[in-house]
């Protein structure tokens, strides 16, 4: 086992999760560098990852959290998803995916990112072999014969056999590694907020394809929904500027009739939907993960779930390895993850596009798509299994 620590740059959802998984799968020591302060236990952290959003965690992600001993803590502050209800504005065609049909207790759960951060960071701080350097920032890297020298803005210098870039879509580490990235600006933004409801949501998540873009209502504890409402940037700007009564009326008119009535909206925040894809994910002694590797459209809540499957495979491949930075080892990891990444990235890119196109032929085929999903349990089941990360 190597004596030098594995170094992760970025202590967001991906970096924090990876540090824990690497330890679980045999890594001797890990250093996590995060540019924002990470505080515990007084207050849940507020960083670019652990912010006001909520995340739908698939059954597969929950199983990984269970293995880390964290599943219960997450479930205590999460709402289960029993059914996903998919519909299209003012059209026929509706499908439901249900836990019962899949033979599982839940399709997944929805948790607020702040709580997810609180649980992950609690576990990080509880492991003496994980050193958290926050706030501190990567200020430069230098290639050594058997790894990288990593300089931090605090003035500290570390040496590592494996440098992991988990510093988000605009990753500096990726850039310094000489790995370029492709950006696709959708021209759309996502507005997120928490909503209070007049009645129980009964564990139903709603995914609604509107002419502007998809809208998701995800169940949260205490009779609330987490809203992800996407649309053209100028349109989202208007929704952000509206008074509460006006924006509630706009939103209510777009919600499926089956969903409980909305009674209030919390603080609104917006995220530009720029989809990023790294041109390579591994080079000798370095690997790129999370948003730094692939930033997806939030349409089906797949970004973090896909990342967790990557991180598990990476930890299993390099965690106990004597040569975690060997290109052969890293390439084996990349190859293992290629198919799943391609499928999910393409689906989350093309599904919103397909539903946006207004031509009658497309309108007809996407309607048929929803109807087919509803009529053919096998098709729906395959879709649900993939979304559950199973
Ligand atoms: C509106 C919205 C809703 C979503 N909903 C879901 C969902 O329901 N389910 C799901 O699976 N996914 C969802 N996602 C995707 C999910 O949020 C991402 O997969 C996740 O945020 C990726 O985390 P990350 O740690 O890779 O990147 P980030 O969250 O960007 O974190 C990067 C971290 O690196 C730090 N950093 C940056 N530069 C440096 C540096 N030089 N030195 C040190 N630290 C640095 C930053 O401060 C930050 O903490 C959603 C995304 C959006 C936008």
Mean pLDDT: 88
CATH topology of the largest domain, what is it called?
Answer: FAD/NAD(P)-binding domain
Count of DSSP-assigned helices: 12
What is the end-to-end distance?
32 Å
Which structural class should the secondary elements be placed in?
Answer: alpha+beta
Ligand names: flavin-adenine dinucleotide
Computed Rg: 21 Å
Give the low-confidence spans.
none
Cα shape:
globular
Helix content: 25-40%
User: Can you name the CATH architecture of the largest domain?
Assistant: 3-Layer(bba) Sandwich
What share of the residues does DSSP label as strand, in percent? 25-35%
CATH superfamily of the largest domain: FAD/NAD(P)-binding domain
Largest sheet: 9 strands, mixed
> What is the number of E strands?
21
The CATH class of the largest domain turns out to be: Alpha Beta
- Count of spatially separate domains: 2
Task: Characterise the protein shown here.
The chain is built from 12 helices and 21 strands. It is an alpha+beta fold. The chain has 2 domains: 6-76 and 113-183 and 274-350, 3-Layer(bba) Sandwich (FAD/NAD(P)-binding domain); 79-112 and 188-273, D-Amino Acid Oxidase, subunit A, domain 2 (D-Amino Acid Oxidase, Chain A, domain 2, 2-Layer Sandwich). The strands form 4 sheets. Strands 5, 6, 13, 14, 15, 16, 17, 18 and 21 form a 9-stranded mixed β-sheet that branches. A hairpin with a 2-residue loop joins strand 9 (138-144) and strand 10 (147-152). Flavin-adenine dinucleotide binds at residues 9-15, 33-36, 47-49, 53, 55-56, 137-138, 166-168, 172, 190, 192, 228, 271, 290-291, 298, 301-305, 307. Flavin-adenine dinucleotide is lined by residues 9-15, 33-36, 47-49, 53, 55-56, 137-138, 166-168, 172, 190, 192, 228, 271, 290-291, 298, 301-305, 307.
């Amino acid at each position: 086992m190597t004596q030098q620590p594995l170094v992760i740059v970025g202590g967001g959802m991906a970096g924090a999760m990876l540090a824990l998984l690497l330890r679980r799968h045999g890594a001797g020591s890990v250093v996590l560098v995060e540019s924002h302060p990470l505080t515990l236990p007084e207050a849940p952290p507020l960083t670019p990852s652990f912010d006001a959003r909520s995340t739908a965690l698939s059954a597969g992600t929950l199983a990984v959290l269970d293995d880390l001993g964290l599943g219960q803590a997450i479930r205590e502050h999460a709402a289960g998803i029993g059914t996903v209800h998919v519909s299209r504005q003012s059209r026929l065609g509706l499908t439901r995916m249900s836990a019962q049909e899949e033979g599982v207790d839940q399709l997944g759960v929805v948790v607020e990112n702040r709580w997810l951060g609180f649980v992950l960071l609690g576990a990080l701080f509880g492991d003496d072999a994980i050193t958290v350097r926050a706030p501190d920032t990567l200020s430069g890297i230098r290639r050594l014969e058997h790894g990288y020298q990593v300089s931090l803005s605090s003035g500290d210098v570390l040496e590592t056999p494996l440098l992991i870039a988990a510093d988000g879509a605009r990753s500096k580490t990726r850039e310094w590694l000489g790995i370029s990235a492709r950006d696709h600006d959708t021209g759309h933004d996502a507005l997120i907020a928490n909503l209070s409801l007049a009645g129980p949501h009964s564990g139903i998540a709603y995914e609604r394809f509107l002419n502007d873009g998809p809208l998701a209502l995800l169940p949260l504890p205490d009779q609330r929904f987490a809203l992800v409402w996407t649309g053209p940037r100028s349109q989202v700007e208007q929704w952000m500027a509206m008074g509460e009564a006006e924006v509630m009326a706009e939103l209510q008119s777009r919600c499926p009739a089956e969903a409980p009535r909305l009674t209030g909206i919390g603080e609104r925040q917006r995220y530009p939907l720029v989809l990023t894809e790294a041109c390579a994910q591994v080079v000798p002694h370095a690997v790129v993960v999370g948003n730094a590797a692939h930033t997806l459209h939030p349409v089906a809540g797949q970004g973090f779930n896909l990342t967790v499957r990557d991180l598990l495979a990476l930890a299993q491949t390099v965690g106990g390895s004597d040569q975690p930075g060997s290109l052969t080892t890293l390439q084996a990891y990349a190859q293992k993850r290629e198919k799943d990444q391609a499928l999910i990235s393409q689906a989350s890119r093309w599904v919103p596009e397909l539903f946006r196109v207004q031509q009658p032929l497309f309108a007809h085929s996407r309607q048929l798509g929803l109807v087919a999903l509803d009529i053919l349990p096998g098709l729906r089941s395959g879709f649900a299994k993939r979304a559950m990360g199973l």
